[in-house]
Write a structure and sequence with these properties.
The protein is mainly beta. It has three domains: 61 residues, SH3 type barrels (Roll); 62 residues, Nucleic acid-binding proteins (OB fold (Dihydrolipoamide Acetyltransferase, E2P), Beta Barrel); 58 residues, Nucleic acid-binding proteins (OB fold (Dihydrolipoamide Acetyltransferase, E2P), Beta Barrel). Helices cover 0% and strands 54% of the residues. The chain is built from no helices and 16 strands. It has a six-stranded antiparallel β-sheet, with no helix packed on it. A five-stranded antiparallel β-sheet has the order 9-8-7-10-11, with no helix packed on it. The chain has a five-stranded antiparallel β-sheet with strand order 14-13-12-15-16, with no helix packed on it. The chain is flat, with a radius of gyration of 22 Å. The model has no long low-confidence stretch (mean pLDDT 88).
Length: 189
């Protein structure tokens, strides 16, 4: 149990029989009336954000979650087979639990967020950026556009499609932001 005085960004709490992480909070002491805490909470399973106001001093249940290092091995039907990086224990994970699964390739390191009390996986996060090879894209011709921010679609080695600048060609390695699926830069190696 914790009170509103223990709130901090990233704290995972049980709210309305579901797990939420605190993304923002603000203690408010109005001139008249009792103090309260305004919060923005993100649902751990669905990712939806809700706003809620807690009276100051209210007790809330804190959920213990752990981040564990895993490695993606291979696909088994519709499931992703992940291996714990320290214990080498393997487990099957549904695609719905993996954020940005389209950018995941064999051998990539990921972090699994687990509810420590029940040992149930909540979601799997990729690294913030990944480097992938472009397997197909239309050639970008100079003079195709009047603006310098022109983009085209490119397919990467995992099968995902990404908007890239016109100068990106087949065989180029590009860095992709896994949070929003956007192109970051071309990688020179």
């Amino acid at each position: 149990m914790a009170t509103t005085a223990d709130f901090k960004n990233g704290l995972c709490i049980v709210f309305k029989d579901d797990l939420y992480t605190i993304t923002q909070f603000q203690h408010v002491k109005p001139g008249k009336g009792p103090a309260f805490v305004r919060t923005k909470l993100r649902n751990v399973k669905t990712g939806r954000t809700v706003e809620n106001t807690f009276n100051s001093g209210v007790k809330v249940d804190v959920a213990r979650i752990e981040r564990r290092p895993f490695q993606f091995l291979y696909m088994e039907g519709e499931d992703y087979v992940l291996m714990h990086a320290e214990t080498y224990e393997q487990m099957n994970v549904a695609k719905e639990l993996i954020n940005s699964a389209g950018f995941l390739k064999e051998g990539d390191a990921v972090e699994m967020v687990v509810h420590a009390d029940t040992e149930t996986p909540l979601y799997v996060e990729l690294m913030p950026t990944v480097v992938l090879s472009v397997t197909y894209t239309e050639p970008g011709l100079k003079g195709d556009t009047a603006s310098s921010t022109a983009q085209k679609w490119a397919e990467v080695e995992t099968g995902a499609k990404v908007l890239v600048p016109l100068f990106v060609e087949i065989g180029d390695r590009i860095r992709i932001n896994t949070q929003d699926g956007t192109y970051s830069e071309r990688v020179r190696e």
